[in-house]
Design the sequence.
């Protein structure tokens, strides 16, 4: 269906469509580069909140479990949990532990 449509188009129209596509891709690349430059790194509080959310959802911790813990202690717990998430092997997987 696509090939039939493409063969029916005149050569000038095909060239025009290809040049439009190239212009779009070039513009998209510029916008993407600009957006990545505009992203700010996470603040310590944002990291802490994210780490705590991951730990709570995976270890079943409550807010009281984090009381008195420093950012570095929370970060260490998060690192351990994150390694478990990355190394997860589904039960129906062919791989053996």
Sequence:
């Amino acid at each position: 269906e696509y090939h039939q449509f493409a063969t029916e188009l005149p050569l000038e129209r095909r060239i025009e469509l290809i040049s439009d596509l190239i212009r779009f891709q070039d513009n998209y690349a510029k916008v993407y580069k600009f957006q990545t430059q505009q992203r700010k790194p996470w603040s310590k509080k944002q990291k802490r909140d994210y780490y705590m959310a991951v730990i709570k959802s995976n270890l079943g911790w409550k807010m009281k479990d984090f009381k008195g813990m420093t950012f570095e202690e929370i970060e260490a717990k998060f690192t351990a949990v994150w390694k478990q998430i990355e190394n997860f092997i589904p039960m129906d997987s062919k791989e053996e532990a």
The chain has two domains: 2-38, 44-86.
